[in-house]
Each structure stands twice: as structure tokens, then as C-alpha cells.
Amino acid sequence: MAVGPAFDEIMGTAGSRQPRAALAALGDWLDTTDSAELRRRQQSAEATFRQLGITFAVYGDEDASERIIPFDIVPRVFLKDEWDRLSEGLVQRVEAINLFLDDIYGERKILKEGILPNDLIFGNAQFRPEIAGMRPPHGIWAHICGIDLVRTGPDDFFVLEDNARTPSGVSYMLENREAMLRLCPELFRQFRVAAVDSYPDRLLQTMKSVAPEHTGNNPVCVVLTPGHYNSAYYEHSFLADSMGVELVEAADLIVDDDIVWMRTIAGRVKVDVIYRRIDDDFLDPLVFRPDSALGVRGLIAAYAAGNVAIINAPGNGIADDKAIYSYMPEIVRYYTGADAKLPNVQTFRCREPEALQYTLDHLEELVVKLVDGSGGYGMLVGPTASKDEIANFRAALVAEPQRYIAQPTLALSTVPTLVEQGLAPRHVDFRPFVLTGSKGIQVVPGGLTRVALREGSLVVNSSQGGGTKDSFVLMDNGPSQSQAQS
């Protein structure tokens, strides 16, 4: 069920038949292109994705290897002034995340000054004491961030969560755009849409910029994958291929005298930068899980010696934690000296007795999440939950309140979406990608829009039946007859 009237990003107010003035051309396109033609184009895109092997695995699902994330043909659109405001807030937030990580693994001033409680850090499973005192090259910890946003009105954007470990989804951003350029070129004649196809180049520039300072002019970069059984393997191989760098697994790397080498048929090659798509637990069996077959023995020693950059830096999971998220307004203010330009969703920390009691008293109205949860798992959406689900969550909250946060159930914005009955509003969220290198922070002018395909659903995660849309960032605030941008 929807919660209150939702703002429709194309049509404006819920139920309106007239699109927002700046998007009138998109409204005309929807009116003049019949549903059968839209469906034909959408099916063509999904067939291409299947041929390319863009699949998403849901662990424990026997059909995981056959599944693609559904694609919707109707784009989501950001006007230029909307995007400019979002970009300012994203740059500020990512700057604060990097300063926070540098501090808690270094001097810990934010703890000494009582801004955060000590146990929030030291009692957190995502805090890695093994790397305390280490500092990544150029002092950058979160090189690639995916900041999940939701919208509730024309000017109301909120951060839902921060992804600073190994944020995924960029391959869908790029492939969705390729599909739209091929299938709906008329939209790119109507609107000046900022390009996203430069992302691999931007990422490679970011990687090279954070290579250890003693590295030569052409640092060797690789993408480290856990292998083809991983649910995001397509993205790993896609990015490596797009950047023109090697895709490697643990067996391809060896550490000798605190230097990382890649085995090749021509002999060893020194590696300077590793974009790892492996969680901390499995990164180095000498430091983290000793039973890991996915990691590289000695990698953390090479990192500590300053001989290799790891993107994103080990230990970043603490910035993903939803209990830490609840303190982000204070964190942003502490490190930047200004209030957060992008606010959080109101959050109740169930570790605090008053917040726990409020949550228990209002479970039917709230969204409750595990602080270390992801993918839509371990979550209660109170207004749509059954009595049994609410009872189970109540028991879990009472038993381990520190593991949960709670938030109001927001009326997420909607975008017209092609469903069986035709076009209908469906709720969306948004993950823009922010790159931080030694030369500064840049926000990619696009991102991953996820859409809840079930009517009334607020859960957009692909593992829970959600789909994706292309995300248009306009280079001005209205339609144009200029040449299309790719």
C-alpha cells in the first residue's frame, strides 16, 4: 500500500493528467507512443541484457543464473537545477565520509570530543581494528560511493543510506543508457541529456590518481573479483573491459616482500592499484578470515607498507552501517563546519531506550532495518506487514535492540512505469555514484534508478522484485532540439 499521496516526478501531483511544465515533451511522448510499442522496445532491451549476460543472482534461488533485473522504458528525469543542488549535497557528504574514516582509524577526535559514543565504533562488527593506524595513499578511503536517495516532493530529497564498501549497479546505469539511445533516440533529440558513458574513463583516472606516490607515470590497475559465481560478476568484467585493465582473481596475484605482483604469461607485473569487489572479511586470510580462498595472502601488509592502493580502502564498512548513518548530520557538521545539504530520513536508534519504546509502540507505521542489512533483507515495512511479521520483529527488537534502526514510512516519489495494465505510477529510489581521487570529488551525471514494480510496494531492491530505469540528468531545465547527447 502507498503511504499518503506520492509526488509524481513527471506528472507532478498524484493523479494529475498534465506533466510538469519542463517535462511536457516527455508527457507528449508517453501520450503518443502506444503501450504495445513501449512494450516492444522494453522487451528488446531485456533480450539484449540477457544476451550480454547481465544477470543478477539471488543467493539460495535455484533460478538465480537465469534472472535479469527488469528494465523499464520510461526514464526518470532530473532538471539541471535539481541536479546541481543534489551534487552539492553529495560532494559535501562524501567529503565528510572520507574525513570520518580517516579520523576513526587515526586520531579519533570525533570520539574524544563526545560527538559519537565509543561503543558505536568499537562494538561495531564493521570496524576493523586490524587496520587502525594505517592510512591509504593520498588519505582517501572512499573512492567510489553510492549514496541512496529518496524523494518525497519537488524539492525534498533525503539520503536513505550510504554505500562506501563496494557499491554496485553502475553497469546497469551504463547499459540502461545504451538501450535508451538505441530504442528511444527521439527523447535525446527533445532533451539535452548529460552523458554517462565517460564513467569507465572517470573511474580509471580516479584509480590512477590514488596510486602510491612513488609509482611511475603509468600505474598498473586491476579489478579483483571473487569469481564468476558472484552475483555482480558481470559488472566486474564489464568495468575491467571498459577501462582496459585486467580482471583478476586471488590466484592471479602474489605478494612478495610487501609488493603485489600479477602473474602473466610474460612474467610478473607489479600492481599499483586494486579495485576490489571482495568484502573485507575475505580480502586477506592472514589478517581477516583465515579460511578465505578469495583473498590475497599478504595484501594488507603491502597496503600498510604504502606499496598498493586498495579501492575502496579496507575498513570502509563502518560508513555503511545504518547506526552510523543516523549520526551523519552530526558527522557532516563536525568535519565540514556546515549543516548537511542533503538531510537524513528521520531515524530512531533502537539501541536508545526511548527510541526503542517508540518503535515498539508504532511498529505498524514504521520501516525497521538491521543496521548492517542490505538488499532489502532483514527489513520490516510496517504498513504492509502481516501480524506475524510484526510479532517476530517485536521479539527481535526486544532481544537485540542495538541491531536495529527505525524510520517513518515515507511516500516515495513515483515515475510512470510500464506494467501489464499499461502505464502506472511506481515508487522509485536513486543511487548516484560519486568518485573521489587525489584531484577532487566528482559526481557522475546520472545514476541507478530502482523501481518497485509491484503496485504500492516501497521495496525497490532487485532481490525483492524491483527493476531499473535510465536516469536522465538534463543539461538545462527544458526540452531542446539540439543534437542528442550520449
TrEMBL record:
Q: Per the database record, which ranges form the Circularly permuted ATP-grasp type domain? A: 75-452
One Pfam family cited in the UniProt record for this chain: CP_ATPgrasp_2
Which superkingdom heads the taxonomic lineage of this protein's source?
Answer: Bacteria
Q: Which InterPro entries match?
A: ATP-dep_Glu-Cys_Ligase-2, CP_ATPgrasp_2, UCP005522
Protein name according to UniProt: Circularly permuted type 2 ATP-grasp protein
Q: Look up and give the organism this protein is from.
A: Sphingomonas panacisoli
